[in-house]
């Protein structure tokens, strides 16, 4: 559609104008592989979408994030192990194994095959594990900083600023304290300024954050704009609910600690108690049988 093309051009121009180091507004989540990439990137759009969403939640939102991810997996999981094994066996056959160094020359062929197999496993499962860990850590950082950001937005709105201006100002202020949350808020405002629909921009921001609080926040702001209610009051109530929820989660973890500590203490102390209580009887029995 003409409107969609116009918005796309504006978002692309805004992303390019920010320079090389700034996050791009045009994210290639709907990438379709072609040519050689068909052998590396999954052909199913659903599978590509899931991986692209995980990369976005991990903070990798560049245009080539999806392609780079699969290229890295292929390089680390196939090229390096096969290259290492091929180089070893070629040098062994050519009688130049000593040129590879004493560490490699001292390996036997079975050890080389085992190292190559371990490299394949690390190459294919290592990047996925790294992305999952990065997503979990990023969600935790955003979840901890989110209530404070809502309070700052509420204060800015009560001071007379509009919601968009308040959100931009708060994002700039928390850039050092919560860089992940700041980046997502700034990206959402840039998308809105570039012409993207407000609802879609906030929902996309919540999807990139990957936490339920962000999705509820996006729905709250959209409903507040649609029905004309006070955004400051809605944010005040919602931030208080988030704090209560976070306090309940902390209490839940604290209540689980005695049970977890009991299991650990039982595993560590039970052998010692058995030795102290049963040991003397066993020693007396052995002494009786010996005499």
Walk me through the structure.
The protein is an all-alpha fold. The chain is 78% helix and 0% strand. Helix 8 runs antiparallel to helix 9. The longest helix has 60 residues, at 231-290. The protein is flat and about 90 Å long. The N and C termini lie far apart (100 Å).
Quick overview:
By secondary structure, the protein is an all-alpha fold.
Characteristics:
291 residues; mainly alpha
What's the gyration radius in Å? 29 Å
Low-confidence stretches: 16-24
Subunit arrangement of the protein: single chain
Largest sheet: none
Compressed to H and E, one letter per element, the order equals HHHHHHHHHH
Q: How many helix segments?
A: 10
Layout of helices and strands:
Layout: H1 2-17, H2 45-57, H3 65-94, H4 102-105, H5 109-158, H6 163-173, H7 179-193, H8 198-209, H9 212-227, H10 231-290
Helix pairs in contact: 3-5, 5-6, 5-10, 6-7, 7-8, 8-9, 9-10
């Amino acid at each position: 559609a003409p409107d969609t093309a116009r918005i796309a051009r504006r978002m692309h121009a805004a992303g390019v104008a920010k320079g090389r180091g700034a996050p791009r507004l045009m994210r290639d989540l709907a990438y379709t592989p072609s040519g050689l990439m068909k052998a590396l990137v999954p052909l199913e759009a659903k599978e590509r979408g899931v991986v692209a969403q995980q990369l976005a939640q991990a903070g990798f939102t560049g245009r080539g994030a999806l392609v780079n991810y699969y290229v890295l997996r292929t390089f680390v999981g196939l090229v390096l192990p096969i290259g290492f094994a091929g180089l070893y066996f070629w040098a062994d056959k050519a009688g130049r194994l000593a040129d590879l160094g004493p560490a490699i020359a001292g390996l036997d062929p079975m050890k080389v095959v085992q190292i190559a197999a371990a490299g394949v496993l690390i190459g294919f499962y290592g990047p996925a594990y790294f992305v999952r860990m990065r997503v979990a850590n990023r969600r935790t950082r955003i979840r901890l900083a989110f209530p404070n950001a809502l309070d700052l937005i509420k204060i800015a709105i009560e001071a007379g600023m509009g919601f968009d201006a308040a959100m931009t100002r708060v994002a700039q202020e928390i850039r050092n304290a919560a860089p992940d949350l700041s980046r997502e808020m700034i990206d959402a405002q840039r998308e809105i300024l570039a012409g993207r629909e407000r609802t879609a921009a906030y929902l996309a921001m919540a999807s990139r954050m990957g936490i339920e609080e962000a999705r509820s926040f996006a729905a709250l702001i959209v409903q507040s704009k649609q029905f004309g209610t006070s955004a400051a009051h809605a944010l005040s109530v919602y931030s208080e609910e988030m704090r209560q929820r976070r306090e309940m989660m902390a209490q839940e973890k604290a209540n689980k600690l005695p049970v977890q500590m009991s299991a650990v203490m039982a595993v560590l102390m039970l052998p010692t108690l058995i030795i102290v209580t049963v040991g003397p009887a066993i020693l007396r029995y052995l002494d009786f049988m010996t005499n």
